[in-house]
Amino acid sequence: MSFELYYWDGLQGRGEFVRLALEEARADYVEVARGDEALGLGTASMLAVLGSRSEACPPFAPPFLRDGELLISQTANILFYLGPKLGLAPADEGLRYVANGLQLTIADAVTEVHDTHHPLASGLYYEDQKDAARLRAHDFIDHRLPKFMRYFERVLQQNPAGDAYLIGATLTYVDLSMFQLIDGLHYAFPKATRRFGEHYPCLAALHDAVAARPNIAAYLASERRLAYNESGIFRHYPELDKAAR
């Protein structure tokens, strides 16, 4: 039976972190919102689950994943579930909680990226908060971005199994998510990340190694990989970007 992934059509968003794990493992999955309504798929089907009165605990928002009778929400929680099933989690049970902690920290960084272009209210258009966004984005570039990246660089350097992966000696879903975070930052803030490899060589090497993995490379070159756009989390507004200190 296929996994069913529910996320907004036309957006990478938080759903992309789940897609990368499914693609790396060549898992059988269906993008429900991107499917044919004649087959019972499409955005209306996703909204029906969100508003369901029959689900014991319906999800608050996408992404969410259905595996048989099980419905799982929240990106980090989905990956915590999928990791062992897809061979993308540490074998040691204790380290799985460490991996989850790293994934939650990535989620914190993603939220701060989103808030660079929507610092006042998610319900307002970007154009209604441009001045505040400029202040927030420049503070993010100067302070928060290096704080997050220095931390993740140190995690790589201090991995007892070597600096090729964030945890353990083999690829996990956390490495795939780190690739997506770095890749999105390059799109959103090309000036700020121009010297990324100089400042964070281990992270840059991880990003490139993930991109070169056969299954990921095939996915990135396919139509399944949606393009970045100014409706997602990672948005490129030139006025928000600047060279890092």
* Contiguous uncertain segments of 5+ residues: none
Largest sheet: 4 strands, mixed
Structural class by SSE content: alpha+beta
Q: Could you tell me the radius of gyration in angstroms?
A: 18 Å
Oligomer: single chain
User: For the residues shown, what is the average pLDDT?
Assistant: 95
Name of the CATH first level of the largest domain: Mainly Alpha
The best one-word shape is globular
Helix content: 40-55%
Distance between the termini: 50 Å
Number of domain units: 2
Q: Strands of the largest sheet, in order across it?
A: 2-1-3-4
Number of helices: 9
CATH architecture identity of the largest domain: Up-down Bundle
Residue share in β-strands: 5-15%
Succession of helices and strands: EHEHEEHHHHHHH
The number of E-state strands comes to 4
What is the CATH fold-level name of the largest domain? Glutathione S-transferase Yfyf (Class Pi), Chain A, domain 2
Keywords: Transferase
Domain GST C-terminal: 92-240
Organism: Paraburkholderia phenazinium
Domain GST N-terminal: 1-90
